[in-house]
Write a structure and sequence with these properties.
By secondary structure, the chain is an alpha/beta fold. It is 44% helix and 15% strand. The strands form three sheets. It has a six-stranded parallel β-sheet, sandwiched between helices. Helix 1 crosses helix 2 and helix 5 packs parallel to helix 13 (299-315). The relative contact order is 0.12.
């Protein structure tokens, strides 16, 4: 049988003092004698008394909890972002509730509703691939709840954001592939509305244009999602067509891995026949054979910056300003694109 939780009223009855005295003693209020405070606190510890977080939230209008919604919790990038958010939250004495939308718009809405119902003091969010309308996110703002978007954001939303320098990173990737001799560079991208795809395509187009290379639209392949399976199917079609690329840039590491599987299936060599570059520095990318060149987005810095922006809003709402923080990325050149020895 489940034991009933000990309440302030139970403590008051056992000590034959008022509920208000117990409440103030638990908060170490100096108006209560030191002896009474000690007696109340010792009994609370002995009986396992724990404050009811919902009751505290109702009374103080603060739950000391923030909510984080990510598209995929198993993804290395998002897992590292969450870890950094938790570290910053610990510093401020806050708890973190984490949920995954699993790339579902409906699940994303439901997660946000749950966080609002639980009176979270703020929300950090990365938008799912299927999210194309933003009313549920605007509801957070109209509720007066502090909000920060990271990685996958939307220009339509006037809210603080933390993003990687996607366009510049993509530009550097394509420059690297061109310096390695590539001329027909395919781009594997995802759903059109997502900011990460738009920005990474911008960098791709800039590098191709600056190097006076033809932009063959048949080499810009839009996959329905960011998975290995989707990218592999797209690259197999590409390799079987007359538009054979000599390099492939996948806008995340799973897409690069999908490209690798397709190229191996067609018994082509990497990087000699087709060079590959990914994005996000997932654990899988470094252990593939050959290892996959990628981008370090510094997820720890993205998470810490997003959390600090959120706590600025929570702790000093009068002075907090909406702003966008851009985190610089770094190229990690590995075997899949390194043609220096050729």
């Amino acid at each position: 049988m489940t034991q009933k939780a000990i309440t302030i009223k139970d403590l008051a009855e056992k000590l034959n003092i008022s509920v208000s005295t117990v409440s103030r003693a638990l908060k170490d209020n100096p108006e209560i004698s030191q002896q009474t405070r000690k007696t109340v606190q010792n009994l609370a510890k002995e009986l396992g008394y724990k404050p009811n977080p919902i009751a505290v939230a109702l009374k103080t209008h603060k739950s000391n909890t923030i909510g984080v919604v990510v598209p995929q919790i198993v993804n290395t990038f998002f897992a590292n972002v969450v870890k950094s958010i938790e570290e910053v939250a610990d510093k401020y004495g806050y708890n973190v509730l984490v949920s995954s939308s699993n790339e579902s718009f409906e699940k994303e809405k439901k997660n946000i509703d749950i966080f609002l119902a639980n009176r979270c003091d703020g929300i950090i969010l990365s938008i799912s691939k299927t999210t194309t309308s933003y009313k549920h996110i605007q509801n957070i703002q109209t509720s007066g709840i502090p909000l920060v978007l990271f990685d996958r954001t939307a220009k339509e939303l006037e809210v603080s954001k933390v993003v990687a320098d996607d366009a510049e990173a993509a530009y550097k990737i394509v420059q690297h592939l061109i310096h390695g001799g590539a001329r027909k560079i395919a781009l594997l991208t995802g759903p059109e509305h997502l900011s990460i795809g738009k920005n990474r395509m911008k960098g791709y187009l800039k590098a191709m244009t600056q190097n006076k290379l033809e932009i063959d639209t048949s080499l810009i392949v839009r996959c329905e999602d960011f998975t290995v399976k989707s990218a592999k199917a797209a690259v197999l079609r590409l390799l079987d067509s007359k538009h054979m690329p000599d390099a492939i840039f996948g806008i995340n590491d799973d897409m690069a891995i999908g490209a690798m599987e397709a190229i191996k299936e067609r018994e082509l060599r990497i990087p000699e026949d087709v060079a590959i570059f990914g994005f996000s520095n997932s654990k899988r990318s470094r252990y593939m054979t050959p290892s996959i060149s990628t981008i370090d987005q510094f997820p720890d810095k993205i998470g810490a910056t997003a959390a600090e922006l959120l706590f600025e809003q929570i702790l000093d709402p009068k002075h907090a300003k909406i702003r966008e923080e851009v985190i610089n990325c770094e190229l990690i050149v590995r075997e899949s694109s390194d043609r220096s020895y050729l």
